[in-house]
Amino acid sequence: MTRHHPDSLSLMEYSAGNLSEPHALCIRLHLEQCPHCRSRVDTLNSLGAVMMDHQPKVTVADSSFEQLMARIDSSPQASSPVVPQPKVSPLQKLLGDDINALPWKRQLADVSVLDITDKFPGQNERVVLQKLVAGGKAPAHTHRGDETTIVLQGAFADQKGVFNQWDFVVLNEQDEHRPVAVGCEDCITLSVLSAPLKLTGTFTRLLNPFLR
């Protein structure tokens, strides 16, 4: 069960279709596993539909409906029933079936990364997968901008608590933390960053110029 959720404003922006594609993906992945947030979005969608119903009505010709139905009736009919296709999650569509088998790049001792920004053309944010080995520690860091993260596998802990699979978290330049992978499997997260992170440890801060 998820314990950390998107805030109300993020869910409202998602319902209205105002989020960037990578941010919307993070929320969608969370919604697939969180009945609580899914119910809230359903309510927001219903409210949006009610508001649309109160917009000025568009007048159409009386014959429009009959013309539409005539076009449907004249369309070629399928000769055989449509076979339902297996549902493919947006994560599978984006990354394939095994995220552990992706071409990870070792960045630090316990941390590997994979930049997938190019899968979201036209977006200003950086989109990155991060893998923290089981029991491993990420370097202490803060952020130069906003970072939206969802846990895809495993779990990590920091001063804010434990974040399990499908948990959601947003951090900014006021947050400093050092995630630790807990449990017996590697922790993999998907993050959307508006700016590079900033290492704050005594030795690792020397690597800041290379973290772009």
From TrEMBL:
InterPro entries: Anti-sigma_ChrR (IPR012807), Anti_sigma_zinc_sf (IPR041916), ChrR-like_cupin_dom (IPR025979), RmlC-like_jellyroll (IPR014710), RmlC_Cupin_sf (IPR011051). It holds the Pfam family Cupin_7. CDD domains: cupin_ChrR. Residues 99-190 form the ChrR-like cupin domain. Coiled coil: none annotated. This is ChrR-like anti-ECFsigma factor.
